[in-house]
Amino acid sequence: MSKFIGYCCSLCSTEYKPQEVTYTCPKDNGNLDVVLDFEEISQHCSPRNIIESQLHSLWRYLPLLPVPEPGGQNTPLHSVGWTPVYACDELASDLGLSHLWIKDESRNPTASYKDRASAIVIARAREIGAEVVVTASTGNAGAALAGMAAATGQKAVIFAPHNAPPAKIAQLLIYGATVYLVEGTYDEAFDLTIQASNEFGWYCRNTGYNPFTAEGKKTAAFEIWEWMVSSNPVINAPFCVFVSVGDGNIISGLHKGFKDLVRLGWLETAPRIFGVQAEGSAAIANAFLSGKEEIIPVAAQTIADSISVDLPRDGIRAVRAARETGGGYILVSDDEIISAIAELGKAGIFAEPAGATSYAGLIKAVKTGIIKSDDQVFAINTGSGLKDIRAAMLAVKEPYIIEPSLNALKKVIL
Predict the structure, then answer these.
(1) Cβ-count burial 255-280 (b if 16+ within 10 Å, e if not)
(2) 309-325 pLDDT, tens digit each
(3) Cis peptide bond prior to 238, omega within 30° of 0
(4) CA atoms of 325 and 270, how far apart (whole Å)
(5) N or C, which end of the chain has less CB nearby within 10 Å?
(6) Within 10 Å of residue 246's Cβ, how many Cβ atoms?
């Protein structure tokens, strides 16, 4: 029996068989949760099976995923996940924390967390025989899809805002995707993507739309859990996870991963999950702080392009991720995000603005007393600073320019 047994609407709880729907609930357009047969999984898999796996990628969690083995030779698709966790003692000391770890998703093949979702979506696309996979993206999701598609010979089409960072557009083109730069926002590109997928029969990867994206993003929760139980006996649940939030799919995926582990009995309780949003793109945080689940669109404006979203497509599940775990939402300014880039750099971690947003939120949470000195904290860097050099240069002083002589150097030093 397949462990993937259907979907459940996150809004109305209607259940569907795998072949009945593809994207969202036909009744209310709610996001669908993938339903797994946990009894079947429990009979054939245990924590020891996972921990003893020799696969150093997200595919070590194949028994907990709704897709088949991707097959083929070792490619970038087979190298997604299993990103490092760094003990950042100096940063912890600066914040007055006893325990702080940074999970660095920039080490994925296309340098962002989005590779996790794209790997699973590509595996699903191959399973159902999709000819073309399409997505809307400010850059990272598109690069992830383009890279994973290139690794498997899959055709990929990307719609991106015309003002996306050039480094991210370069990735899309280098990987051979067909790229359309939309003279509009990410949200407009998102809507156009859905129209195009309906018109041409393309398989749509869009986050907060395709239920398999959260299944990829939940794998980081599995890695945090595995690291917790096998690598560091100091940490124990409950602990805290800080992550930046845009459309809400990453935090929703993390929540789904921890819930799966609790359901299997492999984790006693999920960690407190804290979402961090830029003040200029705060639709989900606004809903959480209002005590409601109504997501009201905003006119997003932030330097962190990867989390700049007018209407988050996975907002309700993102609100629940914090509320149901005893976490919360924190708002940070663009100046605080830029400062956090420099702070992470002191620990040897180069984060793009969206990646540093989680750490900016942690700094504020410590200052406001939300996080105590003895709390055990993970912060996730979702993407590489090489994705947005312009923003990175705002975080540092300009380099010295000198003549090639010792006297010139002495003048600057003295």
Answers:
(1) bbbbbbbeebebbeebbbbbbbbbeb
(2) 999 999 999 999 999 99
(3) yes
(4) 6
(5) C
(6) 34
